[in-house]
Design brief:
heterodimer, A: about 110 residues, mainly beta, B: about 120 residues, four-stranded antiparallel beta sheet, globular
Amino acid sequence: DAGITQSPRHKVTETGTPVTLRCHQTENHRYMYWYRQDPGHGLRLIHYSYGVKDTDKGEVSDGYSVSRSKTEDFLLTLESATSSQTSVYFCAISGNTQAYEQYFGPGTRLTVT
Amino acid sequence: GNSVTQMEGPVTLSEEAFLTINCTYTATGYPSLFWYVQYPGEGLQLLLKATKADDKGSNKGFEATYRKETTSFHLEKGSVQVSDSAVYFCALRGYAGGTSYGKLTFGQGTILTVHP
């Protein structure tokens, strides 16, 4: 299994509070991604990174920001959590292979009350 | 833009039955195609992949063939087991000239339940 960890694994927070989720990899892969998974929507890309300090928006980036100061860590921040951000968040990584296949972390279940 | 359409589930089968989960896609250029599997409470695991037309990806008894003429990548298994019960996702990585950051587009997922 690819060395990807996510923390925390579960979190309950209140509306309006900032929340930061962490993704850590030990594979030295260049690319990292944050997705959210919701019933009926599959997985949707929030933000991705193609190198240290290089990030870009995905399809559902509103209300989220990211940072990548080291190759191994990719942080996702909910600036002011809302109930619509209750979801399961997955981090993924990929390297410079032909297919750029992605490998996923175990997920963080976030509940915003 | 790119899109992936999977057959709607849930799919319920008896053990040792034949499995097909349909997946069709829309993309420009020459996408790579993937099947991922998600077991309850876990992240997605790469099941198989194909990078060019007529490639067959295979793993753990599952197979899928990249059909460019029908823009399809259907997942098949000859004899399913109870342990195959999971959610299956078809995904596509589009290729855009000389630049790609590996972004995936996923289908909605198909729930498979296999009964003894």
